[in-house]
């Protein structure tokens, strides 16, 4: 059973609920703000709820809840054996104390949202969804060893970028060898199971029933972000008529942290033009 938690100190996030099962922990925290749509934030692989703070501060006028999911930073990657990302997402949504209007995900979290939306008879259907830097495999992209190797190389680049973004201004003055050592340590800790969790999710996107999704969805990605570069974005838009796919040359994989103002403005404009509807 979820247990309410009290806020302590001047923290940005107020703990709302937490459940500790025999295998994993799930939790929800609330950001300041009492008006506007209820937004559930779904972090990426090795991410955390705190990574959403810049975007929440820029995107005013919402009631934001950060979900703390099993693929959080530092996790041992046992969760994949006990449920799909969509399964864990739905369990976390059960902890949000009010109906969710908007599901907003980043990277692996975006794909958890995508899987959730494409699951028949799924509960917690939002009025809108926003996917930042998701990944998608067109049917024409054969699953073979060259694809595996290319994906592994891309995974390493994303982890390196994530370490850099997480360090913020410190990364600018850090010794490159120290930064490289930090990236190597992160990759060693994540290990092959972490990479395969993402790779299998990527491979399976082709099989999702995206044509059946009716939730208006905004997809934002960088033109040079390989997770959705080139024909991947075109294929996703064709497979999912409910999605509006936009790419920008200046967006990176962590656009919510680095191009925060632009991302917040796009989300606000999208939601303003999205009809409201009640959750089932």
Instruction: Give the CA-based shape.
Output: globular
How far do the termini sit from each other?
Answer: 23 Å
Largest sheet: 9 strands, mixed
**Strand/helix succession:** EEEEHEHEHEHHHEHEHH
The count of DSSP E runs of length 2 or more, i.e. the number of strands, is: 9
> Which segments are poorly predicted (pLDDT under 50) over 5 or more consecutive residues?
1-9
Helix vs. strand class:
alpha/beta
Q: How are the strands of the biggest sheet laid out side by side?
A: 1-2-3-5-4-6-7-8-9
Strand content: 15-25%
Roughly what is the average pLDDT, rounded to an integer? Answer: 91
Tell me the number of helical segments per DSSP (H or I, 4 or more residues long): 9
Radius of gyration: 18 Å
Q: Which bin fits the share of residues in helices? A: 25-40%
What descriptors fit this protein?
280 residues, alpha/beta, 9-stranded mixed sheet, 38% helix, hydrolase, Alpha/beta fold hydrolase
Layout of secondary structure:
Layout: E1 3-4, E2 14-20, E3 25-30, E4 38-42, H1 53-58, E5 63-68, H2 85-93, E6 102-106, H3 108-117, E7 128-132, H4 145-167, H5 170-173, H6 176-204, E8 217-222, H7 231-239, E9 243-248, H8 255-258, H9 260-272
Parallel strand pairs: 4-5, 4-6, 6-7, 7-8, 8-9
Antiparallel strand pairs: 1-2, 2-3, 3-5
Helix pairs in contact: 2-3, 4-6
């Amino acid at each position: 059973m979820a247990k309410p938690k009290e806020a302590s100190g001047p923290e940005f996030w107020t703990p709302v609920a937490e459940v500790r099962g025999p295998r994993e922990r799930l939790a929800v925290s609330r950001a300041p703000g009492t008006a506007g749509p209820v937004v559930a934030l779904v972090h990426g692989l090795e991410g955390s709820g705190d990574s959403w703070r810049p975007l929440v501060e820029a995107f005013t006028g919402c009631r934001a809840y950060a979900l703390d999911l099993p693929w959080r930073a530092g996790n041992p990657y046992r969760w994949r054996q006990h449920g799909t990302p969509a399964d864990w997402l739905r369990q976390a949504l059960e902890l949000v104390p009010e109906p969710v209007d908007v599901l907003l995900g980043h990277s692996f979290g975006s794909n958890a949202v995508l899987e959730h939306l494409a699951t028949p008879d799924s509960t917690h259907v939002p009025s809108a969804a926003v996917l930042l830097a998701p990944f998608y495999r067109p049917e024409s992209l054969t699953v073979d060893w060259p694809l595996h190797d290319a994906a592994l190389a891309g995974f390493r680049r994303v982890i390196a970028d994530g370490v850099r973004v997480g360090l913020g201004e410190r990364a600018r003055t850090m010794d490159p060898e120290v930064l490289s050592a930090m990236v190597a340590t992160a990759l060693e800790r994540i290990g092959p199971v972490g990479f395969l969790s993402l790779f299998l999710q990527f491979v399976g996107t082709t099989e999702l029933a995206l044509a059946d999704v009716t939730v208006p969805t905004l997809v934002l990605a960088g033109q040079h972000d390989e997770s959705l570069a080139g024909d991947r974005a075109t294929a996703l838009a064709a497979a999912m008529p409910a999605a509006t796919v936009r790419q920008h040359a200046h967006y990176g994989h962590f656009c919510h942290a680095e191009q925060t103002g632009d991302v917040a403005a796009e989300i606000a404009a999208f939601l303003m033009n999205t009809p409201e509807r009640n959750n089932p």
